[in-house]
Write a structure and sequence with these properties.
The complex is a heterodimer of chains A (366) and B (132).
Chain A: H1 2-24, H2 36-46, H3 48-69, H4 77-173, H5 178-209, E1 217-219, H6 221-238, E2 241-247, E3 254-256, H7 258-274, E4 280-289, E5 292-299, H8 306-310, H9 327-337, E6 341-347, E7 351-359
Parallel strand pairs in A: 2-4
Antiparallel strand pairs in A: 1-3, 4-5, 5-7, 6-7
Helix pairs in contact in A: 1-2, 1-3, 2-3, 2-4, 3-4, 4-5, 7-9
Chain B: E1 8-12, H1 16-28, E2 32-36, H2 42-48, E3 55-58, H3 67-75, E4 82-86, H4 91-99, E5 104-107, H5 112-123
The chains are: A alpha+beta (366), B alpha/beta (132).
């Protein structure tokens, strides 16, 4: 708007100045072509009607400077006729120029729109490509995990049974030297717990590779969180983590598998708690975001480096000594399976926020 | 629970370590154990002595002849319970095995006490059905 007014004022001023110059040069210098300049500026910047008005002004300036100069014509009507002709010429120029301007504007708009669409399509393709690679990788990990499990469970089975046999032997002989045998029993218990630990790791791998098909139903996120978070409260108290909740009561249900989704959320919550070894605030929010439900889980813990944030969802990437690096990868897998997406913003030393978007259940999108 | 003494069991597992361990555990309970690490001889073992075995314990994934094959063979014989013990379990495999007639489905690693407990249950006489 500002540029239009500015251009109009400049065009009017230029028209008046040209009229003045025309008058002062005694009309002997051919400068009438310059009247086109303010007319064109006004038409291009401020539009057709301003162009017409400035064109009329220019024709008037030309006519007035002509009359004031006192030039003599065969008929007094000739200068008026010339002024009208000049104005008609300006009209045609303005009309053509603004027509061109309009089509140029629409063309620009179209190009912009198509470029945006193209860009979105490229992004979408990239995303799909990425998801495909991720899926292939996961399938590979799954089959590898199955293979590893098979290879390891046999010796584990053997160790497990042999341990029990040794335990039995010790029991039989325990009457004579009770103390040393008691020591052996402790060791055996320790070994058995190791067996259990290896078994658990294998379970985690297998679960990751062979995610069962989700059993979805309309699910209230508020209900899910209220129910499940209460079980976590003792753990949070233990870790000096203060839980803040804000659930949108009007949030329509999502279409989800409660067990899988809770597993996904729990992985994020576990990470958040681990990021606050000295305690802190854990915030869990849900709200409606267009046609999706937005769950955000924040902590004010140690945050992540750029490198950590980049590899957050990469399977086997972990910064924990006892982590498998599968937790968040599994979370992403579940969220993707539900047609949602997960993102993370983090600031080193200040904390991290995970945003999980899930589509609302069909029929609940308003 | 039934007494395991002198009961005869066929144990099939292609992993020698696992086979040895299971053999030892069951022998200690007084069972007569026939260990087989080559599943292809299972047919011969079962056929040559139809009434000799009281129980079959088999791995599921083996080369040439799978635990499912063992299960199918054993279920053709009367009153021969089969316990599956596998390194590659999961709910699907378990459901399938039970559907095919397995008495129980165990995942390795298994504790000796658990194995013995399942074996005892498999060999327990069927509960008496009250008349009327």
């Amino acid at each position: 708007m500002g540029s239009k007014i500015l251009a109009t004022v400049a065009a009017i001023a230029l028209a008046i100045v040209l009229g003045g110059i025309d008058y002062l040069t005694g009309r002997e210098w051919a400068i009438s072509a310059f009247y086109l300049l303010p007319t064109c500026i006004a038409a291009w910047v401020a539009g057709r009607w301003t162009g017409f008005a400035v064109g009329a002004l220019c024709a008037a300036a030309w006519l007035i400077s002509d009359l004031l100069n006192g030039a003599t014509y065969q008929s007094p009507l000739i200068p008026i006729w010339n002024g009208i002709m000049l104005f008609a010429f300006f009209l045609v120029v303005v009309w053509l120029l603004t027509a061109f301007r309009t089509s140029h504007y629409y063309l620009e708009q179209t190009v912009e729109r198509r470029t945006a669409a193209l860009r979105a399509e490229i992004e979408e393709r990239k995303r799909l490509e990425h998801a495909k690679i991720q899926a292939e990788r996961l399938a590979l990990v799954g089959s590898m995990a199955a293979q590893v499990a098979h290879e390891i469970r046999n010796p584990l089975g053997s160790i497990s049974l042999n341990l029990d046999l040794i335990g039995g032997e010790l029991n039989d002989a325990a009457n004579s030297e009770a103390r040393s045998f008691e020591e052996c029993r402790v060791l055996l218990r320790e070994m058995r717990s190791q067996v259990v630990r290896i078994h658990q790791v294998l379970q985690e791998y297998l679960q990751f590779g062979r995610m069962p098909k989700s059993e979805r139903a309309a699910l209230s996120l508020k209900g899910l969180f209220e129910e499940k978070l209460s079980f976590l409260q003792p753990l949070l108290n233990d870790k000096h983590v203060h839980l803040r909740k804000a659930f949108d009561a009007d949030l329509p249900p999502v279409d989800g598998d409660p067990e899988q989704l809770w597993e996904a959320f729990l992985n994020v919550i576990r990470n958040a708690v681990d990021a606050m070894p000295d305690g802190g605030n854990l915030t869990v929010n849900t709200k409606k975001n267009g046609t999706t439900a937005l769950v955000s889980i924040s902590d004010d813990g140690r945050g992540m480096t750029h490198e950590e944030a980049r590899n957050l969802f990469v399977p086997f990437f972990t910064t924990k000594s006892d982590g498998t690096g599968l937790g968040l990868a599994h979370t992403q897998q579940i969220v993707n399976e539900h047609g949602g997406k997960i993102d993370c913003t983090t600031s080193l030393g200040k904390g991290s926020t995970f945003s999980i978007e899930l589509p609302l259940a069909v029929g609940c999108v308003t | 629970m039934s007494n395991l003494r002198n009961k005869s069991v066929l144990v099939v597992d292609d992993d020698p370590g696992m086979l040895r361990a299971m053999t030892r555990v069951l022998s200690k309970e007084g069972m007569r154990v026939t260990g087989v690490s080559d599943p292809t001889v299972v047919v011969a073992k079962l056929m040559e002595s139809e009434s000799r075995f009281d129980l079959v314990i088999t791995d599921l994934r083996m080369p040439m002849f799978s635990g499912r094959g063992v299960l199918a063979l054993a279920s053709a014989l009367p009153k021969l319970p089969v316990i599956i013990i596998t390194a590659f379990g999961g709910p699907d495999a378990e459901a399938q095995a039970i559907q095919l007639g397995a008495f129980a489905f165990l995942e390795k690693p298994v504790a000796a006490a658990e194995l013995i407990d399942v074996v005892k249950r498999a060999l327990a006489p069927p509960p008496l059905i009250p008349e009327g």
